[in-house]
Design a protein that fits this description.
Helices cover 34% and strands 24% of the residues. By secondary structure, the protein is α+β, with helices and mostly antiparallel strands. The N terminus is likely disordered.
Length: 515
């Protein structure tokens, strides 16, 4: 069938006024697409998925097997359950056919060959640490191939992990809009921008300071925090655009007189001993260099008798409406609980509804600031004895994140929805669902297993999702297992205990198979 194009994509130079105008035009046209195409499951559409982690390259180096994080958005293949939807998925390196078959096998109500005919997988064949969107922009023939698989520009959009100037330029070259926040609003998703939004929204946030850049700024902020509360033991230093905790460092106050006029100098001199970057592979001097480039914040380390790390996921629609789509309890690792390891869904019934209410205030402020698409708001929640939970807003992520793909898989597989007023997720059949998810399932003994091996193990031990019981296991980031011994899992159960049991059972089986 001959492909038809509504109008040619804009061929403009990145970073120019012409590109800005073209991008604004695409944003305006997206509103009509959202109102007419999105609600109709039988409408013809094309979703171009570019799972580019366009983040600081040095920070990305800290994540083992980071190139395979591009596979997290393979959950978008579940859109092929809509019979007239096309998906074009681009990655840095090719994805194994067995992984694609694994996802298509889970599609409800659609024959695998029918879904395959509407799926186009493309690759840059480039395993370097350059972000995927930048790789695509240097390959005009690849851009041409992407265009050739978009039948109608007016019913197509771009879905990305995060949106920077590189994704903006790609959207303009393709002539299709991005469902996400304009990179001109980048500051609003930084640690400094988040703290300002929290104040505007009237929610709690830790004591602290933003828009810092120098080592002296950090020392001064830490000194002020100590003077404000002489009993304070720890504070957190965060780079503006750090992620997964790898841009953070913990400062431990020790033997410092909080009223000493030379406190700033004493703190500065103590950095070598008492300021510890979370990433073990990031030397302190390099941390300061990255901090100076990005800017960042210093804030109090939140303490409490009971402590949790919930996250609330929202969608801001092109119409300016806010949808609260999920809450999670983040599973954090590391000595000071700064590294994202996984997530429990939904968040605890003790506070899921109250933390969602706080997130709604923040999201409504973000609407006024021009945010669009998916965003996540992280909190630290504490409780003393029988008192109520207090939620301290920590950061806003104007992008997809570690809790996006597990929830999308659950939603696609069960056709359910989350009720923020009750804190419950109900499937289409009215059953409650829970899951335990992790992107950081690592064991050196898994290295050497190919994706085909893993699929065989999963089939033999029935480590699959059952549509009948609406429980089971979904594996992701499978491409990283052979080299890095690393993969991800989403384990769905009818109770939190069953979800965790699926996870533990899968680990036990993998360990036994590799022993």
């Amino acid at each position: 069938m001959q492909k038809t194009f509504d109008k040619p994509a804009m061929q403009v130079v990145p970073g120019t006024v012409e590109e800005d105008r073209a991008f604004e035009d695409l944003k305006t046209n997206f509103l009509e697409q959202y109102n007419t195409v999105f609600p109709n499951t039988l409408a013809q559409r094309t979703v171009v998925v570019v799972p580019s982690l366009t983040l600081d390259k040095e920070m990305l180096k800290q994540i083992k097997g980071v190139i395979h994080y591009e596979e997290r958005m393979l959950c978008m293949l579940m859109l092929l359950r809509m019979p007239r939807t096309n998906v074009v998925y681009i990655t840095s390196v090719p994805v194994a056919d067995s992984i694609i078959d694994y996802y298509l096998h889970m599609l409800p109500g659609i024959a695998g060959h029918h879904a395959r005919s509407r799926l186009t997988m493309l690759s840059c064949h480039d395993a370097s640490n350059i972000p995927l969107a930048q790789k695509i922009m240097t390959r005009p023939r690849l851009i041409a191939r992407i265009k050739a698989h978009i039948p109608h520009l007016s019913t197509a959009h771009l879905s990305c992990y995060n949106i920077t100037d590189a994704e903006k330029s790609l959207a303009v070259q393709l002539g299709i809009p991005i469902y996400g926040t304009d990179p001109a609003k980048f500051y609003e998703g930084t640690k400094s921008g988040s703290r300002k939004t929290f104040r505007e929204s009237g929610v709690c946030l830790p004591d602290g300071f933003e828009d810092l850049y120098t080592r002296a700024d950090i020392a001064h902020a830490l000194a002020v925090l100590k003077r404000q509360n002489p009993s304070r033991q720890k504070a957190v230093v965060k780079m503006n655009d750090g992620f997964s905790g790898d841009g953070n460092a913990i400062y431990h106050y020790a033997n410092l007189d909080s009223y000493d006029l030379a406190l700033e100098a004493a703190i500065d001199q103590s950095f070598g001993q008492y300021l510890k970057p979370i990433s073990p592979n990031l030397p302190l001097e390099e941390f300061f260099e990255k901090f100076t480039q990005m800017g960042g914040i210093v804030e109090a380390f939140v303490e409490g008798m009971f402590k949790a790390s919930p996250s609330v996921q929202c969608i801001i629609t092109p119409n300016g409406n806010v949808q609260l789509v999920s809450t999670h309890d983040q599973v954090l690792g590391g000595d000071d609980g700064q590294i994202f390891v996984g997530a429990i869904f939904p968040a605890s019934a003790e506070y899921s509804t109250t933390v969602a209410a706080e997130a709604l205030k923040i999201a409504q402020t973000m609407v006024k600031k021009g945010a669009l698409g998916r965003m996540a708001i992280d909190f630290i929640s504490v409780k003393e004895a029988s008192e109520a939970w207090v939620h301290y807003a920590i950061e806003i992520n104007l992008r997809k994140g570690g809790t996006t793909h597990p929830y999308l898989m659950l939603q696609f597989l069960t056709d359910g929805h989350y009720n923020a007023e009750t804190g419950e997720y109900l499937t289409a059949s009215g059953n409650k669902c829970f899951y335990f998810a992790s992107d950081n399932v690592v064991n050196p003994c898994y290295a050497g297993l190919t994706p085909d091996d893993l699929m065989e193990i999963a089939a033999f031990h029935q480590l699959m999702f059952s549509a009948a019981s609406q429980e089971g296991v979904m594996l992701h980031m499978v491409g990283g297992i052979s080299q890095y011994g690393k993969l991800g899992m989403v384990c769905i159960g009818s109770s939190p205990e069953r979800a965790r049991a699926f996870f533990d059972q899968t680990i036990e089986i993998l360990n036994a198979e590799c022993s």
